Amino acid sequence: MAKIIFEKDSLSNYSRRFAKNMSKLMQIKPNSVVFISYQLAFPGENGEAEVVEIVDDKEPMVFIHGLSGLPEAFEANLLNLKVNDTFDFTISAEDAYGNVDPNAVISLPKNIFQVDGQNPDDILQVGNFIPMTDDQGNRMQGMVVSVGPENVMMDFNHPLAEKDLMFNGTVLKIREATADELAHGHVHGDGGVEH
Ligand SMILES: [Zn+2]
Question: Closest Cα to residue 84, out of 155, 25, 1, 151?
Fold first, then answer.
């Protein structure tokens, strides 16, 4: 009688294939941890898009769907996509970061930027983004618009305000968020917070 042996190797191949197929079947849902590569562009005046950001698959963007803090319209466009699916959509400024608010451009006394009694001139440069906090403890980024002798003009509008955003990219990986990740509101491990 022929000797019958157990093909261990093909079994593990089989389960590997199975796991791979399962992850291919997963779709992006609320609370999915999503890995994407993408390109962000602004629509140009002459019909040519102006590429402003490229995130490649070596350092993908990672977020929890529904907790990303990104515009809802962005997350909505990714819903139900699977691994290797591509996307290509535009969201209008109103659905993204809104319109520029002229009241968010504010003149601040220069001395509030002092560190150890000195004005940090390397920080107060036009175009620099400076982390600030308001009197309610909200954190915000302000861009230096101009620097005068006594005052600094700062713009607290989102840098993407007033912009239509064109995204195209690829879904690289999808997994379920862990209970810890949902409690913390951010991704742990690969591409996320390490703690
Ligand atoms: Zn955490």
Answer: 25
Ligand 1 centroid from CA 182, angstroms? 9
Tokens linked to 100: 């520029």
- The CATH architecture to which 10-97+161-184 belongs is Roll (3.10)
Supply the mean pLDDT for the chain. 89
Positive or negative torsion for Cα 105, 110, 111, 115: positive
CA of 180 to the centre of ligand 1 (A): 7
User: What is the 108 CA–ligand 1 centroid distance (Å)?
Assistant: 35
Domain chopping of the chain, boundaries: 10-97+161-184, 102-155
Query: Looking at domain 102-155, does it have CATH number 3.40.50.150?
Result: no
d(CA 188, ligand 1 centre) in Å: 6
Taking only the tens place, the pLDDT of each residue in 84-133 is: 999 999 999 999 999 999 999 999 998 888 888 777 778 899 999 999 88
| Confidence band for 48, pLDDT divided at 50, 70 and 90 | confident
Q: How far is the CA of 179 from the centre of ligand 1 (A)?
A: 10
Task: Report the C-alpha gap between 50 and 32 in whole angstroms.
Answer: 30
Distance 185 CA to ligand 1 centre (A): 7
